[in-house]
Design brief:
445 residues, alpha/beta, Rossmann fold, SH3 type barrels, eight-stranded mixed sheet, 17 helices, prephenate dehydrogenase (NAD+) activity
Length: 445
């Protein structure tokens, strides 16, 4: 796509609509967003540097590309509202997670000459970019041959996305499994644990690694927007059959267990494993890797207790610096200048060593102290400096021989950097102890 096209995002003040508004604005496009909440819209307008209007039809008329990014339950209605106003030779898209209904609504309501590309980005608004993200396009054969389709496809590929092109009907059938069955099963598990009044925190003390993974996945799903998940269940036309099949299988297995039919149970597991084929082993490898990664992360953090670290929130990218005081369950406790702050281990990246030092240089204001040291004249100050650089952020700012300097000696002034008074106090103490052991002595006391 060439820059300076105007892209109108209907529902661009929140969620994935806002994500695309920011992303496309940063790529040089003119972006218009709409939303019902004027105050929120004006705030996003200022935040992203885009244009806001609460008039969907006006935005649709002005856009070279019009993207519908509203909740699933109102998508069809909004499409019928704005589709007739999209200009000829322009492009109309939607980014909801079902495709048959919006595809039909768009194609039935646009003018002749408008291209329709129903789209499903398989990621959420916390994703940093399109790199390695899956984007599904479901145009009809007519629109697949259009110039706009080529532009969209090439743009996504250039941004590093994995692009899949399939019919809308096939998409909804697959998504009925990938999203519908997955969400249905794990929400059902969460509701079951609630009905059994299971103390989740207590149960994790006795958890196997697989139970830990299951609880984490349940927590991830039930912690999302419940209205979005309800719409995925209720608006995909393929869901009914999937639910019925799942529930029937649950009843069948429950019956086998009730009857203590051991061979019947074994048969179901074996047949399912046979259907999975090599994917069963792949699943074992993936789960082992996830379990190992969690265990390794905790082991690494335990070794860092008492040391300075940087903690980066993977959603907001905000970085915090402090001493790792302790680890409690899924949380690390950071001592920030005497104040404790808790961070969920699963939601942060932790940096130490050289990476920590680079982050401190980038984000913190450097302070320094100057210390003058007497060394014998024949000492090579560069050798001393190279030794000290392995320990401190340090440089030489002056070398002096002459008045007020002891005979046979020279004064070397070091500038040592830190980030607060307490740190510089500790650095000075460590520095002078090293200096004493390599034959230097402080010039001023």
């Amino acid at each position: 796509m060439k820059n300076k096209l105007t892209i109108s995002i209907i529902g661009g003040t929140d969620g994935l609509g806002k994500w695309f508004a920011k992303y496309l604005k940063n790529k040089g496009f003119n972006v218009i967003i709409t939303g019902r909440d004027v105050e929120k819209g004006k705030s996003v307008e200022k935040e992203l540097g885009v244009e806001f209007t609460n008039n969907n039809i006006e935005a649709a008329k002005r856009g070279d590309v019009v993207i519908v990014a509203v909740p699933i339950n109102v998508t069809e209605r909004v499409i019928k509202e704005i589709a007739p106003h999209v200009r000829e030779e322009c492009l109309l898209m939607d980014i909801t997670s079902i495709k048959e209904i919006p595809k039909r609504a768009m194609e039935e309501n646009v003018k002749e000459g408008v291209t329709v590309i129903p789209t499903h980005p398989m990621f959420g608004p916390s994703t940093p970019s399109l790199l390695r993200q899956v984007v599904i396009l479901t145009p009809s054969e007519k629109h697949k041959q259009s110039e706009w389709f080529g532009k969209v496809y090439n743009f996504l590929k250039k941004e590093g996305a994995k692009v899949i092109v399939i019919p809308a009907e096939k998409h909804d059938k697959i998504m009925g499994i990938v999203q519908g069955l997955t969400h249905f099963a794990f929400i059902s598990l969460g509701a079951t644990l609630k009905e059994l009044n299971v103390d989740i925190k207590e149960s994790r003390k006795f958890a196997s690694p697989i139970y830990e993974l299951m609880i984490s996945i349940i927590g991830r799903i039930i912690g999302q927007n419940p209205y979005l998940y309800a719409d995925i269940q209720m608006f995909n036309p393929r869901i009914k059959e999937i639910h019925e099949t799942f529930i029937n299988q649950c009843k069948e297995i429950s019956k086998i267990v009730k009857n203590k039919d051991r061979e019947g149970f074994v048969k179901i597991m074996k047949e399912a494993a046979k259907h999975f084929g090599s994917e069963a082993k792949r699943g074992a490898y993936y789960s082992d890797k996830a379990i190992f990664a969690l265990a390794s992360e905790i082991e690494k953090l335990n070794k860092l207790i008492g040391r300075e670290i940087a903690v980066k929130n993977i959603n907001s990218n905000v970085i915090h610096f402090g001493i790792l005081k302790d680890i409690e369950n899924d949380y690390l406790i950071l001592d920030k200048n005497g104040k404790e702050q808790r961070f969920n281990i699963l939601k942060v990246e932790v940096f130490f060593g050289d990476e920590l030092n680079e982050l401190k240089k980038k984000y913190l204001e450097r302070k320094y102290i100057d210390i003058s040291i007497l060394f014998k004249k024949d000492v090579d100050e560069n050798v001393i400096l190279n030794l000290l650089k392995k320990i401190f952020d340090i440089e030489i700012i002056d070398v002096y021989e002459g008045d007020n300097i002891e005979e046979g000696y020279k004064s070397i002034t070091f500038r040592i950097y830190g980030y607060n008074k307490e740190e510089l106090k500790n650095i000075e103490k460590e520095f002078l102890n090293i200096i004493k052991n390599i034959g230097g002595k402080e010039r001023f006391k």
